[in-house]
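Why do we care about 3D structure at all? Because function follows from shape, and shape follows, mostly, from sequence. That is the central idea of this module. The next example makes it concrete: a single protein chain, its amino acid sequence, and then its structure expressed as tokens.
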Amino acid sequence: MQEKPNIVFIMTDDQGPWAFGAAGDLNARTPNLDRLCKQGGRLTNYFGMSAVCSPSRACLITSRYSTEVGIPDFIPSKESNIGLDTSFTTWPSILTDAGYETALIGKWHLGSSDEHHPTCHGYQEFKGFRIGAGISKNPKVEVDGQLQQMKGYTPDILTDFAIEFIHRKRSNPFMLSLHFWAPHANTGDCKTPEGDRTWHPLSDADWKPFKNMDPWIPNPDYPNLDIPRLKRMTCEYMASIASVDRNVGRLLDVLDKLKLSDNTLIVFTSDNGYNMGHNGIWHKGNGRWILTNNRGDRPNLYDNTLRLPAIVRWPGVISPNTVINETISNLDWFPTLTSIGGAASGKHLIRGRNFLSLLRGIPSEWNNDLFAQYSMWDWHQTGADLRAYRTTQWKLVRDFNHADKDELYNLVDDRHESHNLMENADITIRNIRDSLNDKLLESMQNISDPAIVHQIF
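And the structure:
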């Protein structure tokens, strides 16, 4: 057996923390993700440090906050010159230097220009999409620097590439990032007859269990909730997740057949969370109302937006059916994975913490507070400029462009974040609010957050 474990880091796009069977969702059909949970560990309080794809992916790969790397919002188009600067060290580059064979297959979304290419950030190989938008069937995929029109369903195509990489590199330690584009809704010309967003086309195998389903929805009594639209979207969304699950199963089978499973660490997670009718909205940090009388924007840092699914399997290290309840963020993968790969990360400025001891089941002192950001590109004008400070019981969300939209929730009594206590007159609640605000501002000062100039409370 190799001394260094192989690492397969699987990341979906827009998967809510509730959206798989082991998390308790009644609509989910995810036998392979549920199997991973049984064979390894589930992180129940794992969070992304931003609320949409590009900044969250930047936080993941650099262990720095989104404003530190200059990507506070999603990168909008392939024409944009915005991207992750190569001055920031990434954990794929450290693992490559440590002798790993590395590849990214799937979605990048940290810059479309050549200077921001994944191979400039430590990956030796790349097959996938530089930009953030795509389609679930017959995609155009960059292969060896050239776009190729592919035939088939996108999750299947990406998994084919991943399996080919594993076959080719199985004799040496490898680190594979497999970034599915699903369950992100399709963009471009793929719309319903009414012009609405859709997850179709979906394969018959993935769509069949949901085609005639009357899905459970989280809060059917929400005022003016557009239930028919929500149910249609829920079925399509869960079928898209099923397409990922089916392909995760294919990948697991290959690792078993090649006798690689025992020495392979598998991570499954997402880039950001998702709302599907929760609090009357759908989508993520740039959420949209799903009401009969309102389909406008609802920027947010709800837990369903920030919290992510996270499963880790590592035979012989992580005990089966492990549940880790400590608060962990996507900043923490950098020191954890480089430690697992036998590479030092101490000389680099990073914000994350090594949680390998928690994976091993070793009791550790752990600070469960969390600071998160989401700034829309026009944050200095009219867009939302959100910061959150979260403890295990309380959560403060401030919009530094719109003080009247600040939020305070008691997460123990109100886990769905339905009752904003920001203007509550109770002196105890006001003291908690002020204490959280002090911690939030301190977190902002520690990273020179540009929104600190608007700190008036």
